[in-house]
């Protein structure tokens, strides 16, 4: 089985997809290889993926917290972030930065994205959600991911702030980031990440780590790169991913996923 991240890995810079990567997915299937996308994206950012990639199978989204059917856009199962843990995490982060802002991704079709009055989304949204507070966000048990964006008073880069957040949030939630150019961290229920999500999916389908190859580019990909029997980093990957990977392939703009799949097919 081949597990691929999307942004910065399968998708090119700018969010387009190369015909080489699309063709490689088809070759993988023709050679009996299962494929799955494993991404930090929420369900609301997955609607266009089947048409873009030609892949209508399954995807693990929200950093492994939720398994969805790309064709029907329905949730198969999800690991929710408990309200108590989410509120405790928010309080711990406010101790690091009193002006930190929050947002949550929820497993529901309508109003699946909630923000506070200070939060600035990474990507433009068509309809801006009505601002609320973090207590209201966790008034539901459908939260799959908590996002936190530090204020301008924080002078750390994304890696430095992630390390500080990991120390503050030990034993509360899993925390990562997916873009070293954007100061934002992403949190899931404790023990839920791309690695554990992929392991759960693989074991349910009869695959061990030795049967799985994974490819990615950012710190949120690290757990699955470490868990998979064969891990690859695209050339544009974060240094942590390059250090953990078993092999390196060309960048996302040079269809590195296609190169990786062809190596697997011919090995």
TrEMBL record:
GO cellular component assignments: cytosol
A Gene Ontology molecular function term of the record? magnesium ion binding
User: Which Gene3D superfamilies does this one have?
Assistant: 3.30.1240.10, HAD superfamily/HAD-like
Tell me the InterPro entries matching this sequence.
Answer: Cof, HAD-like_sf, HAD_sf
Q: What is this protein called?
A: Haloacid dehalogenase
């Amino acid at each position: 089985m081949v597990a691929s991240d999307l942004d910065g890995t399968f998708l090119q810079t700018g969010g387009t997809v190369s015909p080489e990567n699309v063709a490689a997915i088809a070759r993988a299937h023709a050679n009996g290889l299962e494929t799955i996308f494993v991404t930090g994206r929420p369900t609301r950012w997955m609607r266009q993926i089947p048409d873009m990639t030609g892949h209508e199978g399954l995807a693990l989204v929200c950093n492994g917290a939720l398994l969805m059917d790309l064709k029907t856009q329905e949730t198969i199962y999800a690991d929710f972030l408990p309200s108590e843990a989410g509120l405790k995490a928010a309080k711990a982060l406010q101790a690091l930065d009193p002006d930190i802002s929050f947002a949550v991704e929820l497993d529901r079709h309508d109003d699946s994205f909630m923000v506070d009055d200070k939060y600035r989304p990474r990507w433009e949204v068509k309809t801006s959600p009505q601002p609320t507070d973090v207590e209201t966000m966790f008034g539901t048990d459908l939260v799959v991911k908590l996002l936190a964006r530090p204020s301008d008073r924080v002078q750390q880069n994304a890696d430095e702030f992630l390390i500080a957040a990991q120390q503050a949030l030990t034993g509360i939630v899993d925390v990562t980031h997916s873009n070293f150019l954007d100061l934002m961290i992403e949190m899931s229920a404790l023990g839920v990440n791309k690695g554990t999500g992929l392991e759960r999916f693989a074991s349910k389908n009869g695959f061990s780590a030795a049967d799985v190859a994974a490819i990615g580019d950012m710190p949120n990909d690290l757990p699955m790169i470490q868990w998979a029997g064969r891990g690859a980093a695209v050339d544009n990957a974060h240094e942590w991913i390059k250090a953990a990977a078993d092999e390196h392939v060309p960048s996302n703009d040079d269809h590195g996923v296609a190169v990786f799949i062809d190596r697997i097919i011919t090995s």
